[in-house]
Design brief:
4-stranded mixed β-sheet, 4-stranded antiparallel β-sheet, 23% helix, 5 helices, 274 residues
């Protein structure tokens, strides 16, 4: 297994690296052979395939609440861009192709971003909550995830976590993208919006779903590394059921490895104290 020991890179190298990978992405958008989904359908498609919601405001250790409130402002702008986008057969949904750069001129404000495992502020911060939601929902559909990047750092303990570790998708304009291809014969529609307390999402389809999915983790493990840190590992799988609720498959989805930025037993110790 490749070592996850943190590598310190100069600010110049990071800046030039971003420029290089962003340029590659622009070229792929212009000259690549992918047919991107760019259109919306105001009428909701008939059938709901899967829905999920995540809490907007959470108290996180050493994170000011104003960053959470600014995240909500950013999510309102981003969801308006993505809401009701349709993916027709053969098309690819690209998170950043649809959103574009998150600039102040578009109304985005400073929010929380994670940079090499540390909490920082940046314009458009907090949008990983949206990419996480879309990725998690897509795992419960027949759509094919063709590009997804795991979080390299596990920053916060499992406080009331309802999903398996590593079931999200990190994002950074535009080189860390989330791309989803529709390799089915049906058209799908993404619905995302905010209510008073939650970010809400749905995948909808023209046709009634014939399969359902149960996503779960295997081989969860925490290792002490030679360089002194802890790394968390697991694999994500999903069970596939037909319309009669009979399991017909058990698929490997991905594996995750993330540097832990807290003590492994922190949450358990907190629970005992409380």
């Amino acid at each position: 297994m490749e070592s996850l020991k943190p590598i310190k890179r100069s600010s110049v190298r990071i800046y030039l690296g971003k420029k290089y990978y962003r340029s590659k992405r622009y070229l792929d958008w212009i000259f690549g052979d992918k047919k991107f989904s760019l259109k919306k359908e105001e009428r909701p498609l008939k059938h709901q395939v899967f829905t999920h919601q995540t809490l907007l405001l959470r108290e996180l250790k050493d994170v000011d609440m104003w960053l959470q409130h600014n995240k909500v402002k950013n999510l309102k702008i981003a969801t308006q861009k993505l809401n009701k986008v349709v993916i027709r057969p053969g098309e690819t949904f690209s998170y950043w192709r649809l959103l574009g750069n998150t600039t102040k001129s578009k109304g985005y404000v400073d929010g929380m971003i994670l940079h090499y495992g540390k909490v920082r502020t940046g314009v458009g911060g907090g949008l990983c909550q949206l990419s996480n939601l879309i990725y998690w929902m897509t795992l419960h559909t027949p759509l094919t995830i063709t590009e997804r990047y795991r979080h390299s750092y596990d920053v916060f303990p499992d406080s009331k976590r309802s999903q398996p570790f590593g079931s999200g998708a990190t994002c950074a304009y535009n080189y860390l993208d989330l791309q989803i291809k529709n390799e089915t014969n049906n058209t799908y529609q993404l619905v995302v919006y905010l209510n008073d307390t939650h970010l809400v999402g749905e995948w909808r389809s023209e046709s009634q779903p014939i399969q359902t999915y149960q996503v779960y983790e295997r081989e969860h493990l925490i290792t002490r590394e030679y360089w002194g840190g802890y790394v968390r590992h697991n694999t994500i799988h999903r069970k596939v059921f037909n319309k009669e609720k009979i399991q017909i498959d058990d698929e490997f989805v991905t594996e995750n490895h993330a540097i832990m930025m807290y003590e492994p037993l922190l949450e358990q110790q907190t629970e005992k104290v409380n």
